[in-house]
Amino acid sequence: MQNFKTMAHTEIRTYLNAHKDRFLHELLDLLKIPSISAKPEHKSDMEKTAEAVKNRLIEAGADHVEICHTKGYPVVYGEKIIDPLKPTVVVYGHYDVQPADPIDLWNSPPFEPVIKKTDIHPEGAVFARGACDDKGQMYMHVKAFEIMMKTNTLPCNVKFMIEGEEEVGSPSLGPWIVENKEKLKGDIILISDTSMIANDIPSIDTGLRGLAYMEVEVTGPNRDLHSGVYGGAVANPINILCKMIASCHDENNHITIPGFYDNVQELSQEERAEMAKAPFDLVAFKKDLKVEEELGEKGFSTNERTGIRPTLDVNGIWGGYTGDGAKTVLPSKAFAKISMRLVPNQSSKEISELFKQHFESIAPKSVKVKVNAHHGGEPVVVPITSEGFIAASNAMEETYGKKPVPTRSGGSIPIVALFKKELGMDSILFGFGLDSDALHSPNEHFGLFNYYKGIETIPLFYHHFSTKA
Ligand code: BES
Ligand code: MN
Ligand code: MN
């Protein structure tokens, strides 16, 4: 280990330093393709991006690189098997990105990456949709692999599985992994698609929340009506929908759906005390978001509210007249998209069903309600005692000079639970981005420090993971 540290680590750093500019420009090229999986008009951009990822993997030294077609967008696969008796790391990432809108709020066009300094990223950050989520973080793995190949320091086998539908719930990847169990055989899944606390406070996520995503339609009268002629005499579906939504939380911000908390795993006082050790700056949190006060479930801290507690949020609500000026109308219909973040041991299917029953039951007779479920996903926890977690922790400790803090992420990566269920593998959530990098928001960015630090740290994970076995 001493040997690896002094020799290979130095070699890795030297190679990284010599190729920094190219590594950055290759990422910028990838960010120029608008691979928005949610919008059908970007189909050819999706294919172009898959092709680019394939070529970058080949150049980095991967074998059997292929574009694997699915019912949806393809999965890019590649591997390097140096010795079947050695451990195998399976890298997962996604090349699709979220839509860029609202475009007006971007300071530079979302698919014309630029590098700018910020308070948090004094050495500069790449601004573009997908910079952090997940092209930048995914590409760190391709470059770390290139370094290990070129410096002859790859200590184990590696398989890449880069998908194009994560941002729309990975509908094709689930079936694809089931069909390719043999091909994907490995010891650990390695994913960089989450965040760390801060650039001087490394952390590793030990869990992800699940998701149940619903859409509701409330219908009042059979057509839009004059709000003067009819107003006050029939149900306004928007008024009703707002009441129904408001009633889903009580005065303590507990969710009121019967049975919602039944399977929620409660943490012990010791576990909560352990969690509370993770540094968190509430003042900075409020300042960043420009809010006077945080808000959430009574009896829990902000980190607990996002990490170990389930939530219910309206993602969008519409109906009636929303154009310029005023139109006096009593709408016939109202709609909302409502999502619930889930924690162990809630089940996405069960919670969707409970929501549906509840929402239908609280609707007054004056309206009709339709409830449909969109995609969902199950929560996961990663044991911090596992060899993979320890290898990741050791790797970060070497490059950051501090032991990473275990944290719980509030976000979801639905496929991770399926990796465990279908492939029997745990995942390591080796995220190098920051929550403040504006993922899914205008002006998404990824720090250059984070990009290069990730590339430097990943080979150390491979080293620690393969020497344990
Ligand atoms: N990379 C994110 C998830 C994430 C971000 C986890 C930050 C932890 C910290 C992923 O791309 C994502 O956005 N997931 C979606 C779910 C998906 C079904 C659309 C999410 O969490 O909303
Ligand atoms: Mn992501
Ligand atoms: Mn995302």
Low confidence ranges: none
Helical residue percent?
A: 25-40%
Strand content: 15-25%
- The CATH level-2 architecture of the largest domain is identified as 3-Layer(aba) Sandwich
DSSP summary: helix tally: 12
The number of domains is: 2
| Class from secondary-structure proportions | alpha/beta
- CATH topology value of the largest domain: Aminopeptidase
Number of E-state strands: 21
Superfamily (CATH H level) name of the largest domain: Zn peptidases
Task: Write up what this structure looks like.
This protein is of the alpha/beta class and 469 residues long. Helix content is 34%, strand content 21%. The chain has helices at 2-31, 43-60, 135-150, 173-179, 237-246, 269-275, 282-289, 302-307, 348-362, 387-400, 415-423, 448-468, and strands at residues 63-68, 75-80, 88-94, 114-116, 125-127, 157-163, 188-191, 195-196, 203-205, 207-208, 210-219, 225-226, 311-319, 329-330, 333-342, 368-377, 380-381, 405-407, 427-429, 433-434, 445-447. The strands form seven sheets. The protein has a six-stranded mixed β-sheet with strand order 1-2-6-3-7-19, with helices on both faces. A hairpin with a 6-residue loop joins strand 1 and strand 2 (75-80). Helix 10 (387-400) crosses helix 12.
